[in-house]
UniProtKB/TrEMBL annotation:
The chain crosses the membrane at residues 52-78, 84-104. InterPro entries: Phage_holin_3_6. Keywords: Membrane, Transmembrane, Transmembrane helix. This is Putative Holin-X, holin superfamily III.
């Protein structure tokens, strides 16, 4: 910014000086847009980290609850069949549910999309349009 005060007006400058300035400005603009993209990805990453931590805690408590329900199912089934058979039947049912969940989960993960720095991309597109308008003027 301080250099701009000491520069000659654009009308008094040579084409070479103007091209050099344009090159410098484009470099600075690209660096700024890259910083914006990094900042945006960091911000989104932090939110994803907090969300994943809370989701993990919820999963842990759900696991405790599910374990208690499994024990209740084994005890209830043990009233009809021997205890060992009740435990085996409940375990087989749980393995079936786990297999189905794993297949569905694998399908969902393969369809996932990595995060995109939307603000930075939008900014770059706007900058390109501004430069195009300036060149055509």
């Amino acid at each position: 910014m301080i250099e701009e005060v000491n520069k000659k007006p654009a009308a008094d400058r040579s084409v070479g000086e103007l091209v050099t300035d344009l090159t410098d400005e484009v470099k600075r603009l690209v660096r700024d847009e890259m910083r914006l993209a990094v900042f945006e990805l960091q911000r989104k990453g932090k939110k994803m980290g907090v969300g994943a931590g809370l989701f993990g805690a919820a999963g842990l408590f759900a696991l405790f609850g599910a374990g208690t329900l499994v024990a209740a199912a084994v005890l209830a089934l043990a009233l009809v069949v021997p205890g060992w058979l009740a435990a085996v039947l409940v375990a087989v049912a749980l393995f079936l549910v786990a297999g189905v969940a794993a297949l569905i989960g694998k399908k969902e993960v393969t369809q996932g999309v990595p995060p995109v720095p939307e603000e930075a991309i939008s900014g770059v597109r706007g900058d390109v349009e501004t430069v195009k308008q300036g060149v055509h003027s």
